[in-house]
Task: structure prediction
Amino acid sequence: MSELGIVLPSPPTPLGAYVESADTGNLLFLSGTLPVVNRKLAIAGRLGENLSVKEGQEAARIASLNALAAAKEHLGSLDRLTKLIKLTVLVATTEQFAEHAQVADGASNLFVQVFGPDTGHVRLVYGVQSLPVGAPVVVDTIFEIRPKV
Result:
């Protein structure tokens, strides 16, 4: 991560009665992460209304950094992460907005940077009317992890 110039934020904290992460076997499941910086929403709004695709991509990237921060907090370091298995990106949009995939690329491109282009991940992207605390995106991740040594 440091070689890529990527600095992780503080790990997110739950907004309700749930935990941020849970693992079973060789999988790590994270709760949906938001584009939060210093415990505040960095980008708010809806795509197609008051946010551009570029702003949506940045929101997805920030939310993905928060996912990595949550993974690091759960595992103690990122050394056990081997790859991203599945990425789901929810995008708050207007009815007319149709560039969901480009917004989600903000998340996918970060994970390709971190894990390399050969690991790949499957992805689901869809638009919704609204998201918690006015966030434009929520990133949901499932990672493969190495066993504890």
Remarks:
- The chain has a mean pLDDT of 94.
- The two ends are 22 Å apart (CA to CA).
- The CA atoms of residues 9 and 69 lie 6 Å apart.
- The first strand starts at residue 21 and ends at 24.
